[in-house]
Each structure stands twice: as structure tokens, then as C-alpha cells.
Design brief:
- The protein is an alpha/beta fold.
- It contains twelve helices and 15 strands.
- Helix 1 (14-25) packs across helix 8 (242-254).
Amino acid sequence: MSAPRIIVTGGAGFIGVNAAARWLSKGWRVSVIDDLSRKGVDKNLAWLRKQGPVDFARIDVRDAGRVRRFVESRSRGLELVLHLAAQVAVTTSVEEPRRDFEINALGAFNVLEALRRLKRRPFALYSSTNKVYGGMEHVRVVLGAHQRYRYVGRPHGVSEKEPLDFHSPYGCSKGAADQYFRDYSRIYRMPTVVLRQSCIYGQHQQGNEDQGWLAHFMKAARAGEGLALYGDGKQVRDVLHIDDLIGVFETCWKKRGRCAGRVYNIGGGPENILSLIDLLRWISGRLGRRVEVRREGWRPGDQRVYVSDIRKAQRELGWKPRLDVEAGLVRLWDWLGRPQ
């Protein structure tokens, strides 16, 4: 009997390459599609191929025909699909809203339709975002301890009960895909789960100003380059190391009967928060010198604080982060210091 198969869309990206490598290590047959449009992902793919046999095809998820044919040709033994392919930057979505929509919303729809056509439908996980909750202007935010913004009256953060309020073209496109994945479970009884992810960081992240700010700050500082600090730097996020995120993926697969059709907020939670200024101070301590920054204005849709309430995932899946912020930062810093 052959090993089970997994398809990872966006499998050469930051999250995708880590997920594909994890399932390779479990002995699965791993099929990956990626259009390789993001800078640096060719290196990720080269690394992944060294981890084991990878079935790779260069496919743009906007091409419904190619997506459908790829899925159909790999349907035998197909147990799991991770839909991770995406346009990932809010700023890019503002500049190119049509492209953002076609990749994120239409691309997700193409994947769902390809899976719906199969006689035996695999479990499908969608990598969504906290941006589906918008700017959350109705929630009071104050400046708290350590010059960090915090919510008033929400010690556990934002739960899945928070009303959706798509903000920015990116929020709209990811939110539309989020809801399609939810609804295909209800209407077509397809086993899907949606993870509304907070700030993910770790190895193989090609960080830049638009996305992947932890890796971007570290890389620029190590190279002696100046950094743009958008807003006042007191913005807070709950951060989650990539190894813990892939752990959630594994848990969802193992407990697919429980989590099919459900949505979970996934992040570091209140115990793993970090501000931009916090990270700059941490990097300065590592380098032994101050990191030079230039001040810029606020960017569209940039929340002053976002912290995930992860209690639903803890309660229903038995999952919680294993790696704390300090250990995670050290792990990323050390990885960036290795020859790439």
C-alpha cells in the first residue's frame, strides 16, 4: 500500500516549505505547486528537494484548468491539502487590487472547485489571516506597560466571535476565501478548516517591508541597512514560530473529525506578544549597537494591537504554542546567521 499524499499550494513559500518538509519527514508523498513569483522562494524549493522526493509543478493558482488537472492527477491516495498560496502584502494589495483578488480569492476558489470534483474529497486546510477582523476601531486601545498598545477589557485577545470587517483589498480577498472554505464545508460537506493566523515567523521566511517583519528587521540590521519604522513602533502583535504553526496543521489533520467546518484564531496569544520597538531593542542587544531607523507614517489597515484569543484551539484541539518569544527569536536569529 502506497503512502498517503498531501498537496501543498504555495509550497515553496515560507509556510509552505516548512509544512512540506514536515510531511516529507513523516513519509508522505508530497506534491507542491508554486508559481515561484516571490523573491527567494527558489532557494526554499532547492532546500526542500534536499529533504526528500518532492513532486513539484510550477503552477499559478489563478489558472483553474492547470490546478484542476494537477489535483485530479494526484487524487489517488490524496488525504490532505494545505492551501497556502497567496499574495501576502497589504501594501501590494492596495497598489494592485485586481491581482490580489485573483490570487487570493479566485485562486482559493479554483482549489476548492478542483477538490469538489473529486469522488473522494481530502481534508483541506486554509491559511487565513487576522486581517479579516479589520481595524477593530470599536475596541478601545490604550498605551500600556513597556510602551505597548493593549486592548481594554480583552485580556485574552480577539476571539472567533469577533464580527468580520474586511479592511484593505488584502483583507477582502483573504476574507472572501476564508468564507468560501467555511461554506464549502456547509454546502458541499467538504471537510475543511480555516485558521485565522496572526504573526508567523521563522526559518525560510523571505522578510521584507511588506510582509515578514521579524525576519526583515533582523536581516536589514545584520546587514547594516537602515530600517523604516511605520507608525510609532508601539504596535503589538502576538507572534508564533513556524514550528508551532505546523504543529497546528498536524493537530488539525489528526483531529479532522472534530475540527472540520470550523474556524480557529491561531497565534502566540497573550503570552507571546511583541512590539516593533521591542524587536528593535532585542536586535540592538544582539548586535551591541543601536539599529538606525527612519520614521514613516501609518500604513492602511495597520492595527495598533492585535492579539489572538487561542482558547478555542486549546479547548477543542488541545493545542498551544510550545516556543516562547525569546526562544523563537533566538532560533530565527541563528538561522539567519547561517550560510543561505
